[in-house]
Amino acid sequence: MAESTCLILHRKSANEPYVKEAVKHVRAQGIDLRVRIPWNKKDKSVVVQEALDAGATRIIAGGGDGTLNGVANSLVGDGSSPAAAEMGVLPLGTANDFARGCGLPLNDLNRCLEIACTGEAKLIDVGRANDEVFINVTSGGFGAEVTATTPQNLKKALGGGAYTLMGLIKAFGLQPYESRVTAPGLGTVEGKWLVMAVGNNRLAGGGFEVAPEARMDDGLLDLSAVVAVEESGLSKLTAELKDPTNPDNEVLFYRQVPEFTIESTTKVQFNLDGEPLRKKRVKFSVLPSHLPVVY
């Protein structure tokens, strides 16, 4: 039997009562929702393709931002052709930054799945980092490196502002990355930076607004970076965090660009919607209005 709507469900969430309740809720409304559960991360693209081969025209990603990233990569492919299906979102992660940024009702899972099954899809931009796709935010620098190896309470602290940043730098003995950013209309900007975010959407790190001006349909990526500062520059960083898009900022760099390349003297840890990437050179670009997403 052909399936038009398929939920790709993170394995750890499959037996949760609230997930079963949400599935039961939409099926009770006459929605023919099929559920597929990948065995592991590598199996995700295979399961998505199986759903597409069975006739699915809407794939719902049930999990955290990493699950959304895996489904988006499967639907977008190399970006040379339209996305293989519409994408819905069932937020089951810890942070759920993409869903939060889309305004989905995170406290009502039944309603989220309802929207994912029946809502109208809107075309959004898709970010690319080299050959990898992201739909929310790519973070880079020591922030991405720390979040990859530390417990949740410390991850939450990363978004706490200037004093937290300086505390983490001291605690981990972290050094800034020497790098240069090249972008159309911006030329080449060289310097040392501590942490950066490339936003297609606004939120990362559990609801922190790292790219406040980002929109998912403007054909642009929002690049936000904290330049290396001494402790004496802490007050300036604190002030600039309150007005991040001010072009006169000296410590907090914020620009909106359609593409740019970042090159560093050492490999930098990046985090694409929760998925790791470690490279010296990354080209960021946009596939404008490429993926139909329901939110």
Mean pLDDT across residues: 87
Specify the structural class: alpha+beta
Q: What is the percentage of strand-forming residues? A: 35-45%
The backbone outline, from C-alpha atoms, is elongated
Helix content: 25-40%
Distance between the termini: 27 Å
**H/E element sequence:** EHEHEHEHHEEEHHHEEEEEHEEE
Instruction: Tell me the radius of gyration.
Output: 19 Å
Number of continuous helical runs: 9
Oligomeric grouping of the chains? single chain
What summary fits the major beta sheet?
Answer: 9 strands, antiparallel
Low-confidence stretches: 146-164
Total count of strands: 15
What does this structure look like?
There is one protein chain. This protein has about 300 residues and is α+β, with helices and mostly antiparallel strands. About 25% of the residues lie in helices and about 35% in strands. The chain contains 9 helices and 15 strands. The strands form 3 sheets. Strands 5, 6, 7, 8, 9, 12, 13, 14 and 15 form a 9-stranded antiparallel sheet that branches. A hairpin with a 3-residue loop joins strand 8 (about 175-185) and strand 9. Helix 1 (about 15-25) crosses helix 5 (about 110-120). The longest helix is centred in the N-terminal third of the chain and has 12 residues, at about 65-75. The radius of gyration is 19 Å and the shape is elongated. It starts with a strand and ends with a strand. The model is unreliable at about 145-165 (pLDDT under 50).
